[in-house]
Each structure stands twice: as structure tokens, then as C-alpha cells.
């Protein structure tokens, strides 16, 4: 951006002074990696120092002006006592016509984001305005604040005059370098694309586009790469536990960390640690011929950002946040040089997938539930769906369906989407989604990826995802947590005009339930007690709700089986997902005639625990291990498969007396 363009921006700007302060640093003091919270001017008035703004060094003697954009990283190394004035402001293009013209001409450039430093030709003139600004700011009355704004414009005018006289070279702050630097420093924290864009005063779309253009990855892709690289290093070079490593790299759930690591690296964290340490021991043996470790390359799949909270306040929930996605990943350890250079180029494409096969309906249909209903318009082949967000007009025969989390019900209705949120490997319907695009976690899909797919229908399970995607294509919000399995299926069926198919699915499920009950009753099992648990040596979660997942719906709701009395009392009164974490010492009191334990890779081995082994159901072989992935979902497709599993395993287990 040229200086004259910046002047035009100021002529069309609305501004607000955010803060002005005078700062004194002693000789030898340092300021490291301070992120500017807003656009700001730094004016040195005494002493000297080396200032670095996004890595660019400026030798600041007395009376030196430096301007940095929001999100820029500031470092100061003082040589002597150093005093400066820091002025923060916010400015935006106030007039819609000019703003539109600007965006059309240079949509990827943020106004007022120039970075420059210079020694003013008339330093005292600038100092006078800053002194007056500071005095007016301290008074903070309404009239004083108005005076502050007036003085700010005068200050800007004086500075632009001096910039033009000296023909100072200005440059735009690089949002990609800023983002890379931020990720490297804050990868342990919760980071989203919208948050990064807000930090650096860019739109999410433009930041993502620029980042991908320069690095070949999206910002969130890079965050995952950084986290996994740090985790690899800790696994090899420390004796920290998996829980400690997961927390250190930004994951609160060790189970989820293990899953994302395996999908990213190809093997689980424990196997990776063993492999790398074994190779290191092999290399240390002088007579052993082995491949050199120098320059060893790792090829691995990439996984997008996700948060899965398996344990919340002592219990688990049937659907909490998490995410995955695919691409190639960089080498094992990311160096700071590579991060800050960011000079490679690349593109990311989305693989094609088969189109949806939803059937249309030529007859009008009424709402089947209080939340969602539909009516077909024969003339333009659309259907009006009544939802909690109002009526939504959708295609009568959608071909490019995107669905988040609710994919099991969609698949059961005979519709194959073109993209879904991530699905666990062990999900009952995993094979039905072969070749379908993955969009990341259900709660935070990649909007750019959704736009690229050009969907004609989007189905979402939450307010947040509805807000995120509703402007891309007709979007239907299904409040899954407020609906029973049957109500949810009816709601989704009404979108596609597949009400009859839904009725058939529900009838078949009810038939299977009755047949399963009879089979278990004939075997003398139906009246036995069932406990569903998840956890390990440090604590075991006891499922206390029909809506918890982990088989609770199949066992407690559909088959109508009971838990031990101490647990059943809670199941009878709790409608939401609920569970309690208890210690191993009191665990036997909560265990029934049969035990279903939810397990996953990395789960504690309890065979040598005397308390666990002494429980009658365990000792007598009535422990049934269930796969976390398989029993995570509660759609009608999954419940059908879960019922088959439960009945088969109960019949195969030794009989309880």
C-alpha cells in the first residue's frame, strides 16, 4: 500500500483513541514478544534502544517514530534508560461506498496496517500533539475525549506531512508471519481461525487464504502440526505421562490426544515412544548396523483442530467437541526458522466425493415433529421445512448434502452426503461414508472447505454451527439433544421427504427390540442387572443415565434392563446425560451381574488390580468390553448395531445366578 493511499484512508476514517501511556525502561531492560492489542504508535523521547517489530529491527534514538499494526510482535532491547510514548487507536473506513470500493480494489489489504519507522524532521511538533493528547486523555471527561480525537487527527496530519517529505518506505504487516509466531507461542491454548483473524485485524477468509497461499496449510492445520511435533519431542525426550504431555500441547483429554496422535503420526503415542527409544538404543550399540537417525523422515497424515472432552465434571457426555481432517504433514520437529520464513507455497484441494442420493417427494407433507416439518413445492422442486429457526426452503431432491454429527440418521435414510464432520473409525456406519469429505469436528467445521464443496443443503446439530454455515446454503438446525432418537429421525426425514422410510426404520427397530427382549428373557438374562463403566485405576465413571451413550440407550432404554439399585435410582430421575466418577475402593458397590466397560487404545489394564479382579462379575467372566468409537453414537443406524452386539455378548457370557 502506497503512502498516498494511506492518506486517502485517513480522509475516510472514523477513529477512536484506545489508550495513551508514557513508559520508562531502565538500561539493559528487555521487552520480549509483546503483541500489540491494537494499531499503535511508539514515539521515543529519551535514550536509545533496538526495537523489533515482527522481526524487523529499528535503531531508535531520541525522537524516533514507529507504527505497528494490531497483532504485531514488539521486542525492545535497551542500551540506556529509555522513555517512550505508546498510543493505541482503532480506525475503520466509515463510509460504505468508499469501504466497498476499497474492498473491491484490494480485498486482502487491511487499511491502517502499515508498518514503518522514521526519525521525524520536526520532532517537537509531534511531541507537542502527543503531550496534549496525553493530558486530555488523563482528564477523561466527555469534552476531553472529544478534544483527544481532534488532537489525534492533527497528530496524524503532522506525521503524514513528515512522512511524505522524507519519502519514508512503508510496508504492510505480514499476517502470515504474525499468525505463525502466535501459534508457536500459544499452541497450548484454545485457538480458532476466528480468534486469529480478530487478533490480526483480518477477516477469517482472507487470513486463511493468505496463510494457505504462503505455507500450503490453513492456520489450524499448522496449529495441529505444531502440537504434534511438540508431543513427539516430549515422548522421546522426557518421562512425562500421556496426560501431562496431552495437557502441555493443548489437549485436555488424554484419550482424544492419543487418537489424534495416532491418526497424525500413524501409530499411538506409546508405540511411537517405544519405537523411537528402541531405535535410539540400537544406534547406541557400536556393533549393530542400523539406519542413521540423522535426517530420518516421517510421513504422516494430518489432522485438523479438535477438542473432545471425554470427562466433564466427573462424567462423560454422548456428544462433546472434537475434530479430524486429512492432508500431508511436515517433518517431525518444526523449527522456528521454518515457521517465521513461511516462504514455501502450496495449495490445498478437497477430494471429490460421491453425490447424495436423497429422494424427492411430489406430495405435500406436514410437520412430523414440533421442531422440524416439511412441505413440498411441486413448481420449483423445493421443500419448505419448518424448524426451530423458522421455515427453511431446501431442494426437494438435494444432491450435495453436508451434515455434521447427524450422519448416522442420514445414512440410515439412504442418503449419502458429500461431506460430514469427522467420524470415529469404529463407528457402525463408517464404511457407508467411504470417500466422503471430512470437515473436521462437528462443532467447528472449516467454512472455507464447505464453501468449496458448493453444497445445496446443510444439516447441523447446534446453534453455533448454524450461525457459522447458514449463509453458505440452505441450513437446517436439528436440536439433537432435545429430541428422542425417533423424533430426531422424523425431523431429518422430513427434510428429504422420507417420512415413510423413517417409519419403516422405527418399526424395524421396535421389532428388533421386542425379539431381543424375548431372547434375553428366555435365557434368564433380561432381569439381571447391568453396569456400564468407563475409566481406569484413578477413577471409574459409572453411567447413570439412559442418554449417556456407551450403550446406555441400547441397554437401559430399549432393552429396559436395570442397573444396580444405587445406580438405578439416578437413572429413573435423570433425563440428561449423567455419570459419576468413583474411586476403585467403592467400585464393587456399583457393579451389577454384568459389566460393560468402554475401552479405547491406551485404557488402563485392570487385570492385576485386586479390587477389580475380586468383583464377582469380573472374576466369573461377565465383563464385556465395548469399543468407545462403536458406542459413542446414538443414531438409529448405530443403535441397531449396538443392540445386536449387546444381545450377542450377553448370551455368550457365563450366566449370572
Secondary structure elements and their pairing?
Layout: H1 3-11, E1 13-25, E2 30-35, E3 39-46, E4 49-53, E5 56-60, E6 64-68, E7 73-78, E8 82-93, H2 96-105, E9 114-118, H3 123-139, H4 142-166, E10 171-172, H5 175-186, H6 193-199, H7 204-215, H8 219-237, H9 242-248, H10 254-265, H11 269-284, H12 336-341, E11 373-377, E12 382-387, E13 390-395, E14 401-403, H13 407-412, E15 419-420, E16 437-438, H14 447-453, E17 457-460, H15 463-469, E18 475-477, H16 485-496, H17 499-522, E19 530-536, E20 539-543, H18 552-558, H19 565-571, E21 579-582, E22 594-599, H20 610-614, H21 616-619, E23 623-627, H22 636-652
Parallel strand pairs: 14-15, 14-17, 15-16, 17-18, 19-22, 22-23
Antiparallel strand pairs: 1-8, 2-7, 3-6, 3-8, 4-5, 4-7, 6-9, 9-10, 11-12, 12-13, 19-20, 20-21
Describe the structure.
With 657 residues, the chain is α/β, with parallel strands linked by helices. The protein is built from 22 helices and 23 strands. The strands form 5 sheets. A 6-stranded antiparallel beta sheet has the order 1-8-3-6-9-10. The longest helix is centred in the N-terminal third of the chain and has 25 residues, at 142-166. 42% of the residues are buried.
